[in-house]
Amino acid sequence: MAAPTASHPTAELPPEMEALRAAVRDFADREVRPRVDEMERAGDVAADLVAAMGALGYFGAPYPERWGGSGLGELGFTIVQEELSKAHTATGLVVAASTGLAARLIHEFGNDDQRERYLAPLARGELVGAFCLTEPSGGSDVPAMQTRAERDGDEYVLTGEKAFVTNGGRANAYLVFAKTDPAAGRRGISLFVVDRDLPGVNRLRLEQKMGLLASDTAHMLFDGARVPRANLIGEEGGGFTAALSILNKSRIGIAAMCLGVAREAVDLAWRFAHERAMFGGTLADQQVTQHAFADMAVDLYAVESILYRTAMQADAGANIEAEASICKILATEAAQRVVDRALQMHGGAGYLRDSAIERLYRDIRVARVYEGANEVQRNNVYRVMRHRRGVPAAG
Description:
Elements: H1 15-32, H2 36-42, H3 47-55, H4 73-87, H5 89-109, H6 112-123, E1 129-132, E2 148-152, E3 155-166, E4 173-179, E5 189-195, E6 201-206, E7 217-228, E8 232-233, H7 239-275, E9 277-278, E10 281-282, H8 287-315, H9 321-346, H10 356-365, H11 374-388
Parallel strand pairs: 1-4
Antiparallel strand pairs: 2-3, 3-7, 4-5, 5-8, 6-7, 9-10
Helix pairs in contact: 1-4, 4-5, 4-7, 4-8, 5-6, 5-7, 7-8, 7-9, 7-10, 8-9, 9-10, 9-11
C-alpha cells in the first residue's frame, strides 16, 4: 500500500530542490534504512555511512563551494535533514550537529585561515564537528557556565566540563564555549575550535539515553588543554552572541528533522491501518482512524509551510530570531502529536521494542528539550514581539 499523499511534501519548490530531495531519499532508502536496526543495536551510525554522506556533499549542503560546500543554502540543508531523518533520526543528527552547529560557527564567525583548516574538511565530511555549550550544572542558563579559558602567551588553557555533546564520541573538532573574563558575564564568553587529539581533551563517558540510541552523546572534560590563540573564533567575549546567532538557524534543522520523523510515522501508520483487518474491513475504514489521519495531515501541512518559509527567509538574509523559535515550537510539538497518534493506531504492536514506531516515539521526545527547550523558545518569541512592537525590554 502506498504512503498517503499527506505524508508527501505539498509545497512547490524549485526543480533543483526537488531533484535534491529525490537524490537524498534514494540514498536514504538504499543505504540507511537497511542498516537502521544494526546501527541502533551498535549504538552508533556506521563510519562508512558517514563517509558516504560526506562524499555526496550532505555535510556541506549550506556552504559555498569555496569552502568545500555544495552551495544549496538553508533550504537545501533543510531538505537533506528532512529526508535523512525520515529514514533514521540518529543519522540525520550526525549531520545536523556537525554542519548546523559546529561548521556554521566557523563559517559565520571564523577567519579564512580557520575556514580553510576546519570548515572545508567539515563540509566534505573529512572531519566531524561537535558543539560544546551545555554544562552539567546548567543548560539554558548559558552565562552561568563554569568552563574557563585563561590566556597564557599564545595559548589559552581550557578547563571545564561539557555535557550532552552530540557527536562527542566521533568528533575531530569541538567548538567549545568558555569564559575568558568571568567578571563580564555573557560578554566574557569566548569560542574556540579544539582538536580532538590535543592533550587534556577527554571523553568521560557516552550517555545512555531513552532514544536516539545510535547518536553518540558524550560528557567531555577539558583538563588544562592548551588551545592555540589561532583557534579563537572571532573576538574574545563574542561567544555568547555567536551561540545565539547559530542556534537560530540550527532550530530550522531541528524542525526539518521533526518533519521527517512525522512523515515516517504517518507512512508507518498508513500501511498498518490499511492492512489491519477489523470488523469485516480494515482499521482504515473506521472513521476514528480517518479523523486521526486528517489531524496528522493538518500538522504536517502546518510544519512544512512554516519550515520551508523560514528556511527561504534565512537564505534571503532576513532576521528569523522569532521565526526560528516558532518553527521549533510548532515542529517539535506537532511531530510528537503525530508520532503519538501513529503509535496509538498500532495498538499493542506499536509498544513492542522491535516496532519502528516505538523507536520514533523514543527518538522524538528529546526534540522539545535540545537546541533550547521549548519554554525558552516561547520566552524568545515574546521578547522579539515586544521589540518589534517598540515595547522597551522588561527590567
